[in-house]
Amino acid sequence: xxxxxxxxxxxxxxxxxxxxxxxxxxxxxxxxxxxxxxxxxxxxxxxxxxxxxxxxxxxxxxxxxxxxxxxxxxxxxxxxxxxxxxxxxxxxxxxxxxxxxxxxxxxxxxxxxxxxxxxxxxxxxxxxxxxxxxxxxxxxxxxxxxxxxxxxxxxxxxxxxxxxxxxxxxxxxxxxxxxxxxxxxxxxxxxxxxxxxxxxxxxxxxxxxxxxxxxxxxxxxxxxxxxxxxxxxxxxxxxxxxxxxxxxxxxxxxxxxxxxxxxxxxxxxxxxxxxxxxxxxxxxxxxxxxxxxxxxxxxxxxxxxxxxxxxxxxxxxxxxxxxxxxxxxxxxxxxxxxxxxxxxxxxxxxxxxxxxxxxxxxxxxxxxxxxxxxxxxxxxxxxxxxxx
Length: 388
Ligand SMILES: Cc1cc2nc3c(=O)[nH]c(=O)nc-3n(C[C@H](O)[C@H](O)[C@H](O)COP(=O)(O)OP(=O)(O)OC[C@H]3O[C@@H](n4cnc5c(N)ncnc54)[C@H](O)[C@@H]3O)c2cc1C
Hints:
By secondary structure, this protein is an alpha+beta fold. About 25% of the residues lie in helices and about 25% in strands. Flavin-adenine dinucleotide binds near residues 23, 62, 183 and 248.
């Protein structure tokens, strides 16, 4: 291995298991794990990887990853930058390594609106703009003012305004081109004073019956966490053991053309986006394709609490999760002609996620009935529970 650089704030460790650093608890080791506590140390790690021709992957809280069983043969860089401050005008500035929940907590405590519905999303602040995290009617792009990044090609630190981030549904320029920039921190422009807007019906219902014993934002945060807990989408100590090892939603909600959406059954829920695309809940498609919550294939399966979340059970490997994901995707395609795209980032695979899943698809897509080798159907809890 080439000599490691001696930079203040940068530490290296070799052959570090990645599984304990992901919420799935899966995957092999990183050849080299670099932890950087300053922007300069981040730059130093990037330079080291580039000069030695080593691939570099940026790791946050590992809550949106599927790491290959063989691990990552390169440098895994953890930007452990800390710091959070709130200006009197509601501008919240946070370093990439802070937990995202600390952002929500600070905003709610200060009575500033804009991120209260994003409570309970695990991971770091630095990863929030990467897939433009969203839930219950809010996205981080709604309040994000700017992102501070390290340009990996030039080594320069730059400030990108919101418009330059290329945000879309669970998407951004950072996700589309991960080799370009590392997020060092963000600034959010939070709102004050006005009554929070609730855009999500399920949340409205939860709030209608919630005790009126706290300020509005704190009540919303609590209600969101309650709804999330009910879906197994909250990684809290009290979370059900069968839903702890997950990356949350494994598939994105497909955005269909009007023509594609018209081909779906009349009772399929639809949401028309501003650009005319029709968003359909992937969870609805999965369940109506015959995949039940709690369905298992070996040591991995579908969460018993939400059809969109895949879970790892005792003894599972990333390979097991891929088999389940491929089956779910094939079942939806066979039933509705819709191809679901995975939401988590695949690490350590040679091929793009869609191709990886294609390789694992063993069923005949023309068949309506999907064979389920060795499946263990679990008891299904009734009632629609679809994530936005
Ligand atoms: C139970 C559960 C519920 C979830 N619910 C939601 C939800 O409601 N909405 C939602 O949007 N997501 C949800 N997620 C997914 C996940 O929590 C988010 O995507 C989160 O932002 C990932 O943060 P992380 O720090 O864990 O990133 P990681 O998983 O470590 O990384 C994710 C991606 O971001 C990149 N990245 C991380 N940090 C940086 C950085 N500083 N600079 C550049 N790139 C970086 C990584 O390279 C990778 O490509 C959920 C996950 C779980 C487990």
